[in-house]
Design a protein that fits this description.
By secondary structure, the chain is an alpha+beta fold. It folds into two domains: 20-160, Glutaredoxin (3-Layer(aba) Sandwich); 178-235, Antioxidant, Horf6, Chain A, domain 2. The protein has seven helices and ten strands. The strands form three sheets. A five-stranded mixed beta sheet has the order 5-4-3-6-7. It binds benzoic acid. Benzoic acid binds at residues 46-47, 50-53, 133, 155-156.
C-alpha cells in the first residue's frame, strides 16, 4: 500500500475525546480531564510563523473572552516545538496587526506536538494534504468530554470564526432546549421540533393541536419560536 494511503484513524462525533497529556505554552495539560465541566474547542493549525495561522490566532485570541462567556475554552496544536510556539506568540503580540486587532496576547494553551502523537490520534495529519503538518481541524467537545462537532479545513483556508461561535451556540441551544437548529440558524431564529414519531402526533401537529409548536411547513417540519434573550440568558455566563 502507498504510504500516503495508509489507514488514518480519527475520532468521530459522539466518541469520547481521546485522552492525552501534553506540554503547552500554558504548562502541561491532561486532556480532556482538565476541561471537564467546560466546552472546549481543540483545534490544529499547520505551523507557527505562517500567515494564515497568524491571522487565525489573532482572531481566536481576540474572541477568547467571547468563547469563555459561553463556557468554552480554547486549545491549539501544531507540529512545532514549545520554543517555536513561545517565539511566535511573542511576535504576534509585539509586531502583528490584523484587521485592527493588535497587541493580542494568546492566553490559551498551544500544544507542542513534534512527535505528532496527538495530531495522529485526532486525524489531524492528512497525508495527501501534508505529511508533517496538521490540517486545520476543529473539534467541539462538550462538558462531559464527548466530541460533538468536527470541522476540517485545508492548509490554504483560514477558518470562519463567526461560524465556529455559531456552531458552539447552536450545540448548546440544542442541548438546553431539546431542539434542532435549521440552516444558517442564529440565536433568535425559529428552531426545529423533533420529527413526529407517530401518525397520531403527525395528525395533531398538522391540525394545530400541539401548543409547543408555532408552525408546521408539513408534518415532518415543525418549528417554534425561541427568543434570542431566552437563548443567551440560558447559555452565556452573566
Ligand atoms: C499559513 O498558515 O499561511 C499556511 C501554512 C501552511 C501552508 C499554507 C499556508
Amino acid at each position: 500500500m502507498d504510504d500516503k494511503q495508509e489507514h488514518i484513524s480519527m475520532p468521530r462525533i459522539g466518541d469520547a475525546a481521546p485522552e492525552f497529556t501534553a506540554v503547552t505554552t500554558q504548562g502541561t495539560i491532561q486532556f480532556p480531564t482538565d476541561y471537564k465541566g467546560s466546552w472546549v474547542i481543540l483545534f490544529s493549525h499547520p505551523a507557527d510563523f505562517t500567515p494564515v495561522c497568524t491571522s487565525e490566532f489573532i482572531t481566536f485570541a481576540s474572541m477568547e473572552e467571547q468563547f469563555a462567556q459561553a463556557n468554552c475554552k480554547l486549545v491549539g496544536l501544531s507540529v512545532d516545538g514549545l520554543y517555536s510556539h513561545i517565539a511566535w506568540l511573542r511576535t504576534i503580540k509585539e509586531k502583528i496587526e490584523y484587521r485592527g486587532m493588535k497587541n493580542v496576547e494568546v492566553n490559551f494553551p498551544l500544544i507542542e506536538d513534534i512527535t505528532m502523537n496527538v495530531a495522529k490520534t485526532y486525524g489531524m495529519i492528512q497525508p495527501n494534504e501534508a505529511t508533517t503538518k496538521a490540517v486545520r481541524a476543529v473539534f467541539f467537545i462538550d462538558p462531559k468530554g464527548i466530541i460533538r462537532t468536527i470541522i476540517y479545513y485545508p492548509l490554504s483556508l483560514g477558518r470562519n470564526f463567526d461560524e465556529l461561535y455559531r456552531v458552539l451556540l447552536a450545540l448548546q441551544t440544542a442541548d438546553a432546549f431539546n431542539v434542532a437548529t435549521p440552516a444558517d440558524w442564529r440565536p433568535g431564529d425559529d428552531v426545529i421540533i423533533s420529527p413526529a414519531g407517530s401518525c397520531g402526533v403527525a395528525k395533531d401537529r398538522m391540525e394545530g393541536k400541539d401548543a409547543a409548536i408555532d408552525e408546521c411547513k408539513d408534518w415532518f417540519f415543525c418549528t417554534k419560536k425561541l427568543n434570542k434573550d431566552k437563548v443567551l440568558d440560558k447559555i452565556l455566563k452573566k
